[in-house]
Write a structure and sequence with these properties.
The chain is α+β, with helices and mostly antiparallel strands. The protein is built from five helices and six strands, in the order βααβββαβααβ. The structure holds coenzyme A.
Length: 162
Amino acid sequence: MRLRDEIPPDTAAVRHVHTQAFGRADEARLVDTLRERGEAVVSLVAQEGGAVIGHVLLSPLDAPFRALGLAPVAVLPEAQRRGVGAALIREGLARARQAGWEAVFVLGEPRYYERFGFSAATASGFSSPYAGPHFLALSLRGARLIPGEGSVAYAPPFQELG
Ligand SMILES: CC(C)(COP(=O)(O)OP(=O)(O)OC[C@H]1O[C@@H](n2cnc3c(N)ncnc32)[C@H](O)[C@@H]1OP(=O)(O)O)[C@@H](O)C(=O)NCCC(=O)NCCS
């Protein structure tokens, strides 16, 4: 398995990964929309034997500092639980850190995302429609994330997700 940047010929395979993993087309459409809007800041595929088996996207949030949202991430059902998702997330976070982003937020299962350093406590000071135990954040630059007046808002295409 190897990780690499998504390239234009991957579009259909990336769509397939999300549709299979989520059992619906909403996340695949979200990826298409974010890509079209130029908001796919980090878009990585996991490739095995010439096939795309996983994908992760990170896109900009409207936040009091330079922050990305990690979403969606998906691995083909038959390739899950082999560390592909973790590898995609770790590499995605490394890319974000290298590019100078200060924080990453994710909406997901704490038990899964805490292993990458995300925590609900870090996200808890920020107002967001997603605020709650599944709204997690990770500071990439070692600094405490100070909420200040700020809220954390996802780009409009996320509002179309059911
Ligand atoms: C979430 C997902 C990307 C993980 O990919 P993966 O390659 O299976 O993940 P890894 O092999 O790195 O990690 C497997 C671990 O994740 C856990 N895990 C996977 N999905 C989980 C979930 N929804 N909730 C809690 N834990 C989950 C497994 O129990 C396993 O835990 P363990 O290491 O303690 O045994 C994959 O399961 C997937 O595509 N799911 C459907 C889409 C989805 O829900 N995406 C996340 C929301 S955007």
